[in-house]
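Dear support,

We are seeing what looks like truncated structure output for some complexes. This example has two components. We would appreciate it if you could run it in full and send us the complete C-alpha cell output so we can diff it against ours.
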Amino acid sequence: MSGDARGWRMALVPDALINPTEQARTALPDVLGVLEASGYGVLQLPPKGGHGLLLAVIADQVAEYAHHGYAVVAVGVRGEPGEGLHWRRLAPLLRHRGVALPPRYLVCPEVDAVAEGQRFATFLAGYDLPAEEQRRWRV
Amino acid sequence: MGRRIDHGRKRGTEQKAPRKVALVANCLLNQNAKVCQGAHYPGLVSPVVEVLRKRGYVLQQLPCPELAFAGVRRWWAVYEQYDTPAYRTHCRRLAQAIAPLIEGYLRRGDEVILIGLDGSPSTGVRFTSSKPDWGGRPNRPEDDWEIQPRRGIWVEELEAELARRGLPPLPATGWALDMGRFDEAGARRDLEQFLDSRETTEGSRDGGKVAQ
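Here is the complete output from our reference environment:
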C-alpha cells in the first residue's frame, strides 16, 4: 500500500490503562507510550459497566480487521474486574463473528513499572500474523 | 458555552473532581482505520495524544463509522456518497452506542470536547470533503475533491443524538489530516490554539465549575 504508514497491528486496551488514575499511574507502565513506540493502534474498551451495544460495535470492528490481515492483541490489567477487557461478553461476540480470540497480555501493576513496560514491549514486538497471511493482505 | 451539566447534583453527595475529557476520532488512536493510502502514522497519531495528555485530558475514542460500514478495503469517498439513509442509520446506531458514556461524563460535571478529523466525509468538524459528481467506476486521477466548511455525516449524527438526549453542543475542532496536503506542524498549532482558547474560556467562568 504505497504512501501509507499503517502498522497493521493494534491492541484492545481497557479504559483503565488509557486513562489511569493518578494513583495507578505510578504503578503502571506508560501503556499508550509503549503501544505508540511499537507501532500499534488502539481500540479502546469502555470502563466497567453495561456498554453492550458499544462492545458489539467494537467486536464488529475487530472482525473486520481480523478478516483482512490485521494483527489484534488484547491488553488486560491485573486487578481490574475482568482485567478491564469485558472478556465474558466480548469473547462470545468475537466468536459469533468468526474471530479467533486475540492473544492476551496482562499488565501487572504490582511489579516494577519500567521492567513491566519492557516486558510488554517485548510481547508487542514478538506478535504478528504469519508471514503468509501478511503477504496475502499487506500489498 | 455550557458544557457541564452537573447542576442536578444532590447536596452532600460526594463527587469526584471534574475531569477534562476529549472525544477523539477513532483513527487518531488507530491509523489502521484509515482508508487505503490515508494513514500517516503506524498506530496512534502521536502529536494529538501528546498534546491532549500533556494538558490532562482523559481520552475517549469514538467508533469508526466507515470501517464498520464499508470495511477496511473501502474506496475513497466524499460527503455526498456517504449521505444516504442507510449510512445515517448506521451512524445513529454508533452514536447510540457511545452516547451513554458521553452523557455520563457530562452528568458528572466533566468538561467534554470533541476532536474530529477535518476533511473527512464522516468525521470532519470544521471541514468535510465534497464532490457531488463522484461515483461509478473509481478512476479519479488526482485529488479533485473540494473542501467544504461543514460537519461530516458521523459528526452530524453524533451531535443530533446528543441533542436528542438534551445534552449541550460540545466544543469541537478537527485534526486537519484529510485536507489534501497534511501539515503536521500546522495541525498541531491549530489544536493547541483550540485548547488554549478552552482554558481561557473555562478560567473566566467562575472557576469553570457549573455553566448551566
